[in-house]
Amino acid sequence: MRAGGIRPRRARRRAFLGRAAVVLPLALAGCGPSVLDPQGPIGAADKSILIDSLAIMLAIVIPTIVAILGFAWWFRASNPRAKYRPDFVYSGRVEMIVWSIPLLTIILLGGVIWIGSYELDPAKPIGSPAPALEVQGVSLDWKWLFIYPDQGIAAVNQLVIPAGIPVHFSLTSASVMTAFFVPRLGSMIYTMNGMTTNLNLQADKPGTFWGEAAHFSGDGFPTMHFDVKAVPAAQFTDWVDATRNARSPALDPPAYLQLEKQSMSVAPFTYREIDPLIYQMIVTQKLPPGPGPATTPHSQLVRPERTH
Amino acid sequence: MLLGKLTWDAIPLNQPIPLVAAGVVGVVIVAVLIWVTVKGYVPYLWKEWITSVDHKRIGVMYCVLALVMLVRGFIDAIMMRSQQAIAFHAQGYLPPEHFNQIFSAHGTLMIFFVAMPFVIGLMNFAVPLQLGARDVAFPTLNSVGFWLTATGALLVNISLVVGEFARTGWLPFPPLSELKYSPGVGVDYYLWSLLISGVGTLVAGINLVTTVLKIHAPGMTYLRMPMFCWTTLASNLLIVAAFPVLTATLVMLTLDRYLGFHFFTNEAGGNMMMFMNLIWIWGHPEVYILILPCFGVYSEVVSTFSHKPLFGYRSMVMATMVICLLSFMVWLHHFFTMGAGADVNAVFGITSAIIAVPTGVKIFNWLFTMYGGRVTFSVPMLWAIAFMVTFVIGGMTGVLLAVPPADFLLHNSLFLVAHFHNVIIGGVLFGAFAGYEYWFPKAFGFKLHEGLGKASFWCWVVGFYVAWMPGYVLGLEGMTRRMQHYDVPEWRPWLIVAEGGAVIILAGIVLQVAQIFVSIRQRAALRDEIGDPWDGRSLEWATPSPPPAFNYAVLPTIEGEEPYWDIKQLARERLTLRDEPAYGDIEMPRNSPTGFVSAFFATFLGFAMIWHIWWLAGLAAFGAFATFVVFAWRDEDEYIIPADEVARIDRANRSARSAVLKRLAAMQVAQ
């Protein structure tokens, strides 16, 4: 079990029943890295907009489906009780209703879209008394590098964050496009070489959450998984200290150029110190974009089974 | 280098799956060729089909291409579903480099070589008949368009055996598709297939726009045209506006890959976001290019099988043109997650949602067409009803994805994939199947077997729901698309269910193939004697089945929205046909091998460019140009069908129709 064991069973069941009231198939998507089981304010807000929009549309979609099947059945040729009205081909009143219903629905939904786009703009900081933790994320072929500029450390394929404190991500790509996505924390965003995208997320409580690349990026794409570990603030400080004192390498330009080469299923590891300008060098291409397969023959790529 | 990059290494001798597949396809093709030659069908095929410029024949060939490629694309689909059903904590049977080719080929084939030729085929076949025209505006260009499309399909299939196909998805997003990250020939196969078939699609679009606007029977004003002609106009206006964008975008990527340009590269000022914008400026109108003709088919079918005129015709015309216009204002909803900011996302979210208004209007108008009707559940009508229900669901999930915060959770997920399969299978493919069953008797003179048609329908519909409703759940469970393998246990049950759905669809396809064979064998019993098997309302049913090359012995004069229905009612009242018209000679365009020959050279051009065989590319380009010159300097381009021949054909149909009226009269006397 990855993230399922975090919440008490009763709370999960209550949430389950709440969802079942909306629509059953959605409720079935209850565990795993489900976006319907958000663990932070952004994910929760995204989800409530999703459910609200769905409810608004179901109010018109369900009657429409019933009417389609009902009309087709009642007006079947073999039904002598149905009145044949071949001249019923235009009615101003019906047209009025026919244009108004979807229009009114979309006006309502348009409001949701407008407000939601501003409230949940990924670049918008999360209102919190605590200052946001800065994390710089880089997608590589095919792993994730997370740099903690204020702590002076970095990690590959694992993201440790303090629970209850907002995190501001600056994200870029070392080579091709992909997307940074932690389903249970909320919004995803693209990573692109030579550019930075901004994302703000927060985990409310400690837990381990599934993170993934959400935009196809080549052969190693399905292995670009990382765990997000949200830990209590004190424990986060401990982790930072432990990482600084570990006998691990330093992330300087030569180490980065080595990391940048294509590889798959890289086990998580950390860098005890970083070149403070490393992220800027990547974004500004002072460190060149990933070399692609040209310098890494396909046969030399490791493709081991993932271990857990 | 005589053969450019082409060496024996290009043949995947170490990969059994594509090799066996290609072997089977090769054996089938050779067997068909031998059979055709032995039976002596080659001159017939050459004269009556390959060089034909008859819009009906070209329409049929488009549909045949679509059906064959549907089988090919479906094999890809079921391979992907099987891979994902077993690749839990395991590599499955498809390594990434193969799996990635399969999903790229599946999308490319299904959109460009199934959905596109299917709808273009139906439009080509039915629109001139519905307009009361003898042919399309540019008959030879029409043939060129078809054969260039076939060239594209051929190149995609050659990639199965020689080299590889793109591993970058059905839209090759840079920088992944740039030479640096995709050094193989896969992306080049993609580019040249679509550059060549894109020209074919563009000329088909120009041809059909001109036909709808210019080639009418007398009195066929715009607001008397059947709904299918309106949706054809809208769809082809979109083709003319959008396909040059696709071609230009692909040319830019080609320049990047071949000549070291930097349109979309990481370095030297290239910008991959520009590719995203350009490709979707084509890509979003593209989905309406596909769905609008199908909306037209449903309009015809619902009206015919409800035995009522279409409800709210003018409202439907308005809705169609509104969709046509709005479809160019929404492309950004394909990448809300690029970080454009709240202003941009909000505006494009709202414009996207607005498209649901005219689409909803259409659904309601079909609903009210059934209201007060006498609905008979023939196979085309079953497809139409299944479409209405399915499309409402697909439309809803689409609008949900147009809400940016919801898209931030669902973008690129299986939810998105389920959404577009929901609208493309449930909308485009169901519509194409409805049109296929509906116009088949018109094209061939006999109906398709009803029982097998219904059995196949149920397999397809049930299979679709079983295969794709789990996709929605998987998307909500955080599963992203294009996963060659995965480690999340919660996904697995749904992927196994989806595999089951694909198997049910397979049964539907087998039944469709069986339907063709059984119908051909029982064609005498299924014969459509008079040319009006469904008690139709629009003009195409006034012609015999199959219609003669000239369609109408005398061009009909149109006096209302349902000209054929009015003529038929009058005949039923008076129990006699109208007086025989005065027949005259008819001029028709001569057959021309231009399309086939230019496509022959285009195939070599594409293949040579893919493999950098420059001398062959030059030769092929010269050959294609020479073909054009020969055609342009032709002396005779028309031939005369004498009045006697026209009279003979028309009288045969009139006597069949009179016989029906005589039976009707006898029945009335008996009562």
Automatic annotation (TrEMBL), chain A:
Keywords: Cell membrane, Electron transport, Membrane, Oxidoreductase, Respiratory chain, Signal, Transmembrane, Transmembrane helix, Transport. It is found in: Cell membrane. GO terms for cellular component: plasma membrane. Its main location: membrane. GO terms for molecular function: copper ion binding; cytochrome-c oxidase activity; oxidoreductase activity, acting on diphenols and related substances as donors, oxygen as acceptor. Coiled coil: none annotated. Belongs to the cytochrome c oxidase subunit 2 family. This is Ubiquinol oxidase subunit 2. It comes from Rhodopila globiformis (Rhodopseudomonas globiformis).
